[in-house]
UniProtKB/TrEMBL annotation:
Record has Ligase as a keyword: yes
Motif annotated as 'KMSKS' region, chain positions: 239-243
Motif ('HIGH' region): 10-20
Organism: Devosia limi DSM 17137
Source lineage: Bacteria, Pseudomonadati, Pseudomonadota, Alphaproteobacteria, Hyphomicrobiales
Positions of the Glutamyl/glutaminyl-tRNA synthetase class Ib catalytic domain: 3-306
Protein name from the UniProt record: Glutamate--tRNA ligase
Catalytic activity, EC: 6.1.1.17
Functional note: Catalyzes the attachment of glutamate to tRNA(Glu) in a two-step reaction: glutamate is first activated by ATP to form Glu-AMP and then transferred to the acceptor end of tRNA(Glu).
């Protein structure tokens, strides 16, 4: 068997959509599984909508996701001369022809077809007409000669055998009157020239496959193996939209998702290996097969994504997470956090094992770490403020006096002192810990509060307590 070559071919008209990212992932995983290559082609033939920032967003999104393509990216527009060459070759071979119909004539054809109860399409007027009849001064388009009888069969790894009646396919345009190729034609020429053996893409391209096979057959080229995967739907079963999560990959980065978690989650949207939900990228590559792709549409579920992301955060090494936290804070413009994380790196690293089980996103991790470098007096959130009653402030004053006399500022020593105070007041330790946490972190959730006190130190702990004891 020859080397497997897949391709990811996005249009640079915006961000790297999450659905496109999944298509890239499947192409990448299959190429890696088979020891093949995944090539990247930027389909930038829409010159008005294709932009350099959008192309860069595709590069950045794939790189962040860890989906490294092979060889240099191909820019489709740069190959326009090659596309035109093949179109004229098809004319010379008798498999395509020049069509001189005006827009008005085409409109009339469509109207007549509708009136006859037929699909509104081109009627083949110039298919067998002598070119000597061509009107002067009219630049023609080139149309492929679609078979007039029989069937086009797409043998698809997901959809099975899909049959298209040729009577429902018209002689579609492959080269416009200005000499530029249509999408349908450019894709075939590029896939052939790039040596693509397997096409893995959304099932919205399934009808395109029939038309593209006509061009392959006309040129005598081998048709790549086809795999058309169902599109992603929202949790409610409707077509994926922004409210469901149809965002750019960069948005998920900014929301605090780890690339390895997103890879894992996207892989499970339309592909499965037994009942495995959590698996490493190495396992995905080992297990990935086209037979494992699902025929039904997958549903995007933020709750599930958060759960998987939480797993990867819990399992990550603190050094790695610290760098991701810093990069994410910079990405979203949280400059105070950038400064705080940078100035308190050692303390943040020491705190992370306590913080990781409590966070599902990197943004939550950053929020949880803020107690380390928060400036006094701390901003107290609404839930924490409820705990700081007048009675609680009185208890905080007693804590302050007791803690001030501690010479050993360690978790066991602080724990013992707090237990002694709790017993003297007839309270459970938790009743002391709740207002203490609120005073020292401004929140109701944090690592163990005694660990927090050791992390921020005796002087800072007592100062924060003092702020709340005297607060109005």
């Amino acid at each position: 068997m020859s080397q497997v070559i897949t391709r990811f071919a996005p249009s640079p008209t915006g961000y790297l959509h999450i659905g496109s990212a999944r298509t890239a992932l499947f192409n990448w995983a299959y190429a890696r599984h088979t020891g093949g290559k995944m090539l990247l082609r930027i389909e930038d033939t829409d010159r008005e909508r294709s932009t350099e920032p959008a192309i860069q967003a595709i590069y950045d999104g794939l790189t962040w996701l860890g989906l490294k393509w092979d060889d240099e990216p191909t820019l489709q527009f740069s190959r326009a001369a090659r596309h035109a060459e093949v179109a004229h070759e098809l004319v010379a071979m008798g498999h395509a022809y020049k069509c001189y119909c005006s827009p008005e004539e085409l409109t009339q054809m469509r109207e007549e077809a509708r009136a006859a109860g037929k699909p509104p399409r081109y009627n083949g007027y110039w298919r067998d007409r002598d070119q000597s009849e061509a009107p002067a001064g009219v630049a023609p388009v080139i149309r492929i000669k679609a078979p007039l009888t029989g069937e086009i069969v797409v043998d698809d790894h997901v959809q099975g055998k899909v049959v298209f009646k040729t009577e429902n396919l018209d002689d579609f345009i492959i080269l416009r009157s200005d000499g530029t190729p249509t999408y349908m034609h450019a894709v075939v020429v590029d896939d052939h020239d790039m040596g693509v053996t397997h096409i893995i893409r959304g099932d919205d391209h399934l009808t395109n496959a029939a038309r593209q096979i006509i061009i392959y057959n006309a040129m005598g080229w081998t048709v790549p193996e086809m795999t058309h995967i169902p599109l992603i739907h929202g949790a409610d079963g409707a077509k994926l939209s922004k409210r469901h999560g149809a965002l750019g990959v960069n948005a998920y980065r900014e929301m605090g998702y780890l690339p390895e978690a997103l890879r894992n989650y996207l892989a499970r949207l339309g592909w499965s290996h037994n009942d495995d939900e959590i698996f490493s990228t190495e396992q995905m590559i080992e297990w990935f097969s086209l037979e494992g792709l699902n025929k039904g549409a997958a549903r995007f579920d933020f709750v599930k994504l958060e759960s998987i992301n939480g797993h990867y955060i819990r399992e990550a090494k603190p050094d790695y997470l610290y760098e991701v936290m810093l990069a994410t804070a910079q990405e979203v413009g949280r400059l105070t956090d950038v400064d705080g994380l940078t100035a308190n790196k050692a303390t943040v690293l020491a705190a992370l094992p306590e913080l990781q089980p409590r966070a599902k996103t990197v943004l939550e991790l950053i929020d949880l770490a803020q107690f380390i470098y928060a400036t006094r007096p701390l901003a107290i959130d609404a839930a924490a403020a409820v705990l700081l009653t007048d009675d609680a402030r009185g208890v905080l004053a007693d804590m302050n006096a007791l803690l001030r006399g501690l010479n050993d500022w360690s978790v066991p020593a602080i724990d013992a002192a707090m237990r002694t105070l709790a017993e003297s007041k007839g309270l459970k330790l938790g009743k002391l810990a709740q207002p203490l946490r609120a005073a020292l972190t401004g929140r109701t959730i944090s690592p163990g509060i005694f660990e927090v006190m050791v992390l921020i130190g005796k002087e800072e702990s007592l100062a924060r307590l003092g702020d709340q004891i005297t607060a109005p």
